[in-house]
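Re: duplicated header lines in exported structure tokens

Our pipeline writes sequence and tokens for each protein into one text file. With two proteins the header for the second block appears twice in some exports. Here is an export where it did not happen, for reference. First protein block:
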Amino acid sequence: MDGQIVKVKNKRGVRVIPGFGLSMGVTVAMLGVFVLIPLASVFIRAGQLSLREFVDVVTSRQVVSGYIVSFSCAFFAAVVNTVFGLLLAWVLVRYDFPGKMFMNGIIELPFALPTAVAGISLTYLYSDKGWLGAAFDKIGIEIAYTRVGITIAMIFVGIPFVVRTVQPVLEKLDRQYEEAAYMLGAGRGYTFLRVILPELFPAVLAGFGLAFARGIGEYGSVVFIAGNIPYETQIAPLLIMTKLEQYKYADATAIALVLLIISFVLMLLINSVQIYMQKFCKD
């Protein structure tokens, strides 16, 4: 028996790991308690409103403006994070330089830093009296209390998602294909676009989706630098908090439900494209 591999099969003949029933039960229970039940409560609470009341809440001018600010800033932040996150991952994987370990560790700072601390720091830094904000203010560019500031805050909290998604894929990428392309006369740019990027694209797309989702739901690091100007810099999560402070719980859950549905649809589309690209690359 020593050295033999134990094969466990279920009733259908599919091999599974020992303890599959217990592990699956714990997984489903944890998923239900911490994900499905809270999400279901959003639907139940929003269902206390009539259809007309629900439509009136989620289509009011202020709420629609909040949607536009949140989604537009999150989209632009995710695009910037995708480009520079890919660049950062490339540098960390392909080059050795002094301070590489420090740079690799500081990438995860937005994960550990409280969002309120990040928001206050960014507000002070980019205000008209801050180190960077004062320099931009001299040339007539205002960052704090504008959508530009909101986008910068979302970039700050979203950059680790792209780097940590692309980095392991880039580390495992077989460099023989690159060498073969070089031997056949392909340039660096052509090799990157036709050989390397198709392999990285699913991971890049996943990082984009994670950064985009994080930006949509971000509150702590954005609320300070946004300035909360009605119809200008009010984000959707702030409107939810405002409704909660007014004890309008059904209205708050209605806004949250719209954000949930839109975010789910976007993530579904992104995952569908990712799966298609993975099959396309294999074929």
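Second protein block, exported in the same file:
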Amino acid sequence: MKIWLINHYACDMYRDKAGRHYWFAKQLLKRGYDVTIICSSAYLNSNEQTLTGRQILGMKETDGIQFVFVKTISATGNGVKRVWNMYLFYQNLMNSWKKIINVTGVPDVILASSVHPLTMIAGIRIAKKLKVPCICEIRDLWPEGIFTASGLKPTSVIGRCLIAGEHWIYRKADALIFTKEGDTDYLLEKGWTTEQGGDIDLSKCHYINNGVDLAQFDRSLQTYVLNDDLLKRNVFKVVYTGTIRPTNNVNLIVEAANILKRRSDIVFLIYGEGNQQQQLKEKAQKLGLSNVYFQGRVERKYIPYILSMADVNLLNYSAEYTWKRGNSSNKLFEYMASGKPVISTVQMGYSIINQYQCGIELEECTPEELAKAVVKFYDMSRDELQKYGDNARKGASDFDFDVLTDKLEQVIEEVKKG
């Protein structure tokens, strides 16, 4: 069976040989599927391109997975260039899907994945022309995220148009995959389900969270050891990996480090980069903090080693965003795979951390509460810490991509049966 996985931002997966659709593709190949990943030519938040010149399509293969790159411009911010980048992906894909078929053959099923809706619209339109089913995968609820981040009102003209477009996608898709367990609650909130007199049948909605390739994680842990003296220091290490931007509220870590600055036996290690990185480094310097370190971006292959050298890993977010429907953060499952406890700075609905008893969620997203949580883990016995870590690793096995692909196969079989 031929499967197209359309994900605008999967270009990074080609480079990293990791990520949701790369791991799905790898598992599907093992099971006899013919898989093609279709993505943008531009790497996310980078000026780097996989295509040069005027060509609008390029094809490369890695690990048996066929990648098709659709020409777009590069975009490093969230302004006009980002919108144009999205539109070009949609337009150039709609103009060239027949050329892709000349190479890959006609797909039996198309899976079109957000973040932005134009990818799903393209998937639905192409599937209709080919008379094949289209699965739409909702990794971020859109346009709710736009309303939260920008202040745009759902009741505005633009807001109503965006919601109408969202409803159209949910209605036209042959199946819907949500990555957060509680996202179907959103459909109920809108009154869109058939049980409420609407036109979306909840039976076509499925939950498949993000996860981790445990075999690859363990290979990387053994193979890629980062030369970082801080990770080898005999102190209690609190590790954060990810982007340094307002959504991730890394300022909270700096403030908590300030509260604990007299505790030389506790250090905070921050791996990643972002638009607040320099600002927060300067803040830490002004506060005279010697217990917080900005380690910059590291290659993905070193993440398993970094997390496994921590005493506790930090899932850091801003409380301004809604977490009532759950969490689908990739890093949560990497944290769990490392076999170390997790501190979440926000409380979440459908909490995976609480379900697996692999860490704690702060009652209040404040520096004081974070500092208390860190000290709580510091004061635990080795046996208590080990229990949290063991629970984390056991929980990760439920989100291994071998297990998640079983769920995806069931959805594929369902839409093929019609």
